[in-house]
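Thread: Newbie trying to understand structure tokens

Hi all, I'm a second-year student working on a class project, and my supervisor (Dr. K.) asked me to get a predicted structure for one chain before our next meeting. I've only ever worked with sequences, so writing a 3D structure as a token string is new to me. If someone could post the tokens and maybe explain what I'm looking at, I'd be very grateful. Here's the chain:
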Amino acid sequence: MVDTGRQNRSVVVAKVDPSLLTTRVEVLEDLASRQDQLWPALSRKWSVDNPAPPWKTSLDGMCDALDDASLAHPGTVLSFEQRRNEEDALAQERYIDLPFPESQLVALAHSLIWRGVIDEDSLLDRMVTVRQRLEA
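---
Reply by user tm_fold:
Sure, no problem. This is what the structure looks like when written as tokens:
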């Protein structure tokens, strides 16, 4: 009997550059390890009933913008298919313990760092700035 889950994972993983999956992004690994920072835990803590985190709309907007840019500039921007393949492979291999949509967010950040679109230090600085604003 064939394990279809493993087979499907290997199909997705085969579609991406192997170095994407082996590249470590410490800030994302640290973030992914903090279960108390996941939306289900935060929504319980703050008594929020909405099942979708407030940042999901921004994530969807970023993905839409990337998709629009790839259509306007084919071959120069990550295509929808490439982005989804990378997200799926990273969610299945690197960030398997994160629920959706956290896995999508972290996978997209990992992909953008790996591609040099953003750098890890800038991401960390931005995260600190946002946290300080939220805690003020």
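A couple of things are worth pointing out once you decode it. The chain has a mean pLDDT of 87. The helical segments are 4-13, 18-22, 26-33, 39-45, 56-72, 80-93, 102-114, 120-135. Feel free to ask follow-ups in this thread.
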